[in-house]
Amino acid sequence: MSNDLDFEGWVCPLPLRDTPTIVMGHGGGGAMSGELIEQLFLPAYGGAARAELGDSAVLSVPAGRLAFSTDSFVVKPMFFPGGSIGDLAVNGTVNDLAMAGATPLFLSTAFILAEGTALSDIGRVATALGKAAEVAGVQLVTGDTKVVDSGSGDGVFVNTAGIGVVADGVEIGPARARVGDAVIVSGDIGVHGIAVMSCREGLEFGTTVVSDTAPLHGLVAEMLATGIDVRVLRDPTRGGVAATLNEIARASGVGIELVERDLPVPAEVKDACGLLGLDPLQVANEGKLLAVVPADRAEELLAAMHRHPLGSGARRIGRCVAEHPRMVVARTGLGGTRVVDLPIGEQLPRIC
Predict the structure, then answer these.
(1) 292 near 183, Cβ under 8 Å?
(2) Does pTM surpass 0.70?
(3) Which residues are in the PurM-like C-terminal domain (predicted)?
């Protein structure tokens, strides 16, 4: 392969062909992120890359199956209502493993520190990270630290990688959604993104919006213990519920139909989104999951989720349908439908 990238040879004309440099939208988890991966990284990796590059990979080893995941965290500010970049780094990686049905065991932690950052702030981040690991029951087993000169970084960036064990018989993946399946969300959506944005911009909405950052593997364990065929699990982080459901629809070939009145959007999130011109479905979450399960077992699964603190607000929000394959739509209160498209770029940059 040539060392020179041929922009004119890329398949998708927008937005990559018209933006020969990286913009914030490339990190938003939406269409621009997907195009960056599909049109630049995967061709560059060649035969070394697995086609199903995702948030985590399930790998067969002689003793069974392992889940492996890596993630980077660049949230600004480092501290926000309900959390910090430290606990977010642990919870985000734990959740990526949990969405593969894995029991998280080990994490690595790598810090990139900007020259001039207060040691007290770094200490707060590290303490929060350690406490989150203890709560999640994972061990921090290896790590790295780098420092960049002032102006080349911004406070603290954290990279984590995680390893977990997948039990025999657990098969979870976005391509497993089937027509007729129910779509479930574990609780209120849009909370994390609004919490970070309100803190960053000094916005007040009459009440403090607190991030939902939390480790979800305990809730997932309760769900799997029911014996129900949980076909798909995903945590709707960057790009929110909209991006995650679009990825599921495209991977499985089904259509997904949501019912807008059933979407659990807290009043403060709804008000903030109205003020800022945001769609709550595209706002990031850090302590919620989406599940796709057979419709005839959905109520049983919901009952199990409601018994867990992180699933007490779980509800059914839609279904998989044969119509409009590979698309997501929402039925409005007026009886019409609207397309819930994959966001192009980043509504709220640097929220994780």
Answers:
(1) yes
(2) yes
(3) 178-324
Residue 156 backbone dihedrals phi, psi, to 5 degrees? -130, 125
Token pair in block for residue 282: 């595209």
Alpha-helix runs per DSSP H in 65-184:
85-98, 119-136
| Strands 102-114 vs 156-166: parallel, antiparallel or unpaired | antiparallel
Per-residue pLDDT of the chain (352 residues; tens, 9 = 90+): 445 544 444 444 344 446 677 776 776 666 777 787 787 878 887 877 765 666 678 888 887 899 999 999 999 999 999 999 999 999 999 999 999 999 999 999 999 999 999 999 999 999 999 999 999 999 999 999 999 998 887 899 999 999 999 999 999 999 999 999 999 999 999 999 999 988 887 777 767 899 999 999 999 999 999 999 999 999 999 899 999 999 999 999 999 999 999 999 999 999 989 888 889 999 999 999 999 999 999 999 999 999 999 999 999 999 999 999 999 999 988 888 999 987 765 667 788 8
Measured in degrees and rounded to the nearest 5, phi and psi for residue 76 equal -130, 125
Query: Does a structural domain hold residue 181?
Result: yes
Range of the domain at 311: 174-339
Cα end-to-end distance, the chain, whole Å = 34
What CATH number corresponds to the domain at position 116? Answer: 3.30.1330.10
